[in-house]
Amino acid sequence: MVHRRLGVVAVLLIAVATGGCTPGPAAATPRPAAATYEEYFVAACAAWDAMFRAVGNPDTASGSDLSRALDAAMEAGDGASAERAAAAMVRELRAGREQVAIARGWAPRTAVMAQLDRVLAAFEVGVAAKLAVAKGEPSAVNPQAAFEGAGGLEAWFAMLEAMRAAGSGAATDPSCPNTGISP
């Protein structure tokens, strides 16, 4: 009986020892930070695209298809539809933040991207608040208050100021193809 237990232990030890040698799922390789304006531009535009897909254009309050779907679900108290829309919005916002992390590498726009990251994070807080309202959670807070409480409004204006200070938005700057933003 002791030999049998030792045999089981030996098999487990071998499995554990060789398990580290077998190929597992490929780990995501982080993309390097932007070192040039061109790299910055691509990542910054991708971040803006993600924000516009998630929430729309904050300057015009036009909303996106996803934000309108979440708003409709919130008003209807449809938690299941709200969960789907919120999940899609959060995926977009997080994808935008990943692009911001790349774009922040280009020093002349680091401050702009730091504020855009704060804006995207605050929108995520706002999405969570809308979801809580849609589900009828008693602790749900006003989504706009949640966004502002997370620093979203402050970050938006700080980002615009950082853009002006960096010289972004000049007539000679290229605009992102999908949003028209000159990052």
Task: Provide keyphrases for this structure.
183 residues, mainly alpha
Radius of gyration: 23 Å
Alpha carbon gap, first and last residue: 71 Å
Strand content: under 5%
Oligomer: single chain
- Inertia-based shape: elongated
Largest sheet properties: none
Which series of helices and strands comes N to C?
HHHHHHH
| Fraction in helix | 55-70%
Structural class: mainly alpha
Catalogue the unreliable spans. Answer: 1-27
**What is the number of beta strands?**
0
Mean pLDDT: 84
Give structural notes.
The chain is mostly helical and 183 residues long. The chain has one domain (33-166). The chain contains seven helices and no strands. It has helices at 2-19, 37-55, 65-76, 79-103, 110-134, 143-149, 152-166. It starts with a helix and ends in a 17-residue tail after the last helix. Mean pLDDT is 84; it is low at 1-27.
Reconstruct the topology from this structure.
Blueprint lengths: L1 H18 L17 H19 L9 H12 L2 H25 L6 H25 L8 H7 L2 H15 L17
Helix pairs in contact: 2-4, 3-4, 3-5, 4-5, 5-6, 5-7
Put the structure in a nutshell.
The chain has 183 residues and is an all-alpha fold. The protein has seven helices and no strands.
